[in-house]
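Example 4.3 (complexes with small molecules)
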Amino acid sequence: MKPHSILDTQYSIHNTHNAIRKAIPVFIVISLLGAGLCGCQNKRLYKDTRIMMGTFVEVTSSQQEASQIVFAEIARIENLLSKYKEESEISQLNKLGVINASPETFFVIKKAKEFWQASEGAFDISVGALTELWKIAIKDGILPAQEKIAQALKLTGSDKIILQEEKNMVKFGVSGMKLDLGAIAKGYAVDSAVEKLKKAGINNCLINAGGDIYCLGEKFNEPWNIAVQDPRKKGFLAFLELKDKAIATSGDYEQYFVKGSRRYAHIIDPKTGYPAGSGVASVTVISKDCLTADALATAIFVLGKEKAGIITKRFPDVDFKIALEKEIVLR
Ligand code: AMP
Ligand code: MG
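Answer. The structure with adenosine monophosphate bound is encoded below.
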């Protein structure tokens, strides 16, 4: 991986969860097109990539200093929210069952509870016990025992996350609960990085944190071009031109295993304790901020096409595209 390569040709962004976790070739989920299409030789974009938050974080900007600002901020947020970092606030909470959180961690947990309510329980960061079970299942290709799922379900439910604003206290209502911010933390980290960029006077930047994307400003007076990959075959579902917008995709093609006729992926339906089986292959959400895009993509993936109206009614400004397992339907 080269630090700072100057782009002068068309290129693609790879969604790389799988590359890291499974070390096998992956689908390209989202492509960025047109880096070299501006038609002017002295227009240069700097691209830099780091592995962070379990994925590749790619930063593209005409301003060379953008990437360092983004990486520093994402590292800071990862240290607060990652359950894989032993010292993070989330790890401490999962260990002790109670913490006085930083304002940022408290904010993200509070937002997550709001999405839980708005999605009628489909989005639920308290799925930690379940995601631990299914992570092993996906690695080994073996279904978890029914009793273990039943036990983990007792530890699930965001109504059991108690928040007290005064001291930013977060407390579990049931001991042994575990939070997993995997469906929202990257979106928040991207938003925080965008804030830092703006403060530093950076006016154009594309951040791609493993499919959680923000398009800041324009690329040489034109919007950024994002192509959404078909989740099942080569090719694209949609081409989008975005400026000052976030986009996030949730899909079942990165981490999964197939047993019988069913695909078991990493997004869990908190009502059943099993991977969501809503018939959706991928959901892409476009929103003003990446936290919302990230959370709602996961929520709609669980809800499925029929119940996606729950989200559209509550978030009328948000746009989304759903690729179904059997047919590609775009909204
Ligand atoms: P995403 O790729 O943004 O859809 O996030 C998927 C990740 O979020 C999973 O790997 C889990 O860590 C976590 N997760 C799984 N199911 C849910 C759910 N129903 N609600 C919230 N987070 C979930
Ligand atoms: Mg998400």
